[in-house]
Amino acid sequence: MSSCQGELGEKDFYVRAVDQGGKVLVDETIATLRNGFFELWLPRDRRIELSIEALNRKATGTIETFDHSKTCVTTFRLR
Question: Strand, coil or helix: what is 75?
């Protein structure tokens, strides 16, 4: 059995997700779970610009929700 443990459990993050057409999908504060991760449910077949902010730091990047896309993304780093 294995499990993942993030570094910032039960912390608030400001999350903004905007799709390729400019539609805002998420614009809210989300708390991480005890394991340090949070979940986002996003529409299929989109290319999404994601911005995550906490602790006076920010992470940005692009994720996709196509059939071949990863469903677990752990590469965003606050800088």
Answer: coil
